[in-house]
Amino acid sequence: MSAPVAGRVSRVTVTPVAFRDPPLLNVVGVHQPYVLRAIVQVHTDEGLVGLGETYADQAHLDRLGAVAAALPGADVFDLYGLRRVVTEVLGASTGGAGASFGGMLEVSSAVDTVASPFEVALLDLQGKALGRPVSDLLGGAVRERVPYSAYLFYKWAGHPGYGEDTWGEGRTPEQMVAQARRMVDEYGFTAIKLKGGVYEPRHEIETVEALAAAFPGHRLRIDPNGAWTVATSIEVAGRLSGVLEYLEDPTPGIEGMAEVSRHTDLPLATNMCVIAFEHLKPAVAADAVQVVLSDHHLWGGLRRSALLGGICETFGMGLSMHSNSHLGVSLAAMTHLAAATPNLTYACDTHYPWKTEDVVRPGVLEFRDGGVAVPSTPGLGVELDEDALAALHEQYVTCGQRGREDTAYMRSIVPGFTPNTARW
Ligand SMILES: O=C([O-])C(=O)C[C@H](O)[C@@H](O)C(=O)[O-]
Ligand SMILES: [Mg+2]
Question: ipTM score here?
């Protein structure tokens, strides 16, 4: 088999980077001063370079490195071949063990998470070789712009020792309305998601009600990442039905979500109890969730995420999109995927507005009217800024972080802090 247009993989680099992040609060703790990400560059013997982006915890970096070493010689159009290589390499190096991210998500196999950035990079290469955007390779864009939501976080005024950041404290309903106002004014978002699980449910309900009053007509969601018991979840669902478009992960696990679901008409969404194909069957059987949040970083890349979209459609479930803190390569991939997924009808999550540094050149991925225009140039449509990559890599080297440790960082400031899962 030959790939005359794009050629074969000649070299792969995986560059860990660190970018600054505000102290955003969640159920397991608080974001550290830096987010770690890995930028994958796949070079071909035809002189093309494809880009991917993923997590950069040390165990994940080790797996990425092992796959990167095995890829030279691969045909850039052979995506099943890529999966084969990843499966073989991981089987040899880890015995096929799973992966854990940030204390919130666990998967039984690391193949999907490790394959994802390489698949995105190969699709970027295919698009560049063919002169077509990645969305065309996924079936074609059904929308020209992808809507995103304002992603609000309760937060400290600044990281201890670093001074106050430009967002200031986010604790009271009034402060959260001000945070939303800035996001809506700057980016035009018409959907708003509140990251909950931080304060008592009563306080978080008051915040949602304040947002509903301040932004009539905006679509609202709250996501406490499983901080509530089943009983509390049912109570909150009753109070906020008619206010929210969906309630995300109120309580942990498929069983708990199914029990809540039996007591409310509010659609329940998840990126916690259904995060891999193996979770779909039990979730559908129990009617535990009505909306699945896809995430190509977790689900094995863009084509596997499209497959998830088809499964959700088959079982009458809605589809939305999850995000973690990310850079422009991921935003481009998310935008192409959402553009080419007809049943992805909710505004996608993004942490992008929280970020002040990037590795891609500015000008392509601009938020207007709450959405990002789908790049129409070949591949992902974004260009790496090599100087920015080097600077953020240097920041990775010197920042001292080697994994996402929200709980440990919180405990270094609030000794005795306990993650809040199903606490209220
Ligand atoms: O929707 C979600 O569950 C998330 O966005 C998970 C993230 O880890 C979020 O909680 C965060 O960044 O703290
Ligand atoms: Mg969530």
Answer: 0.99
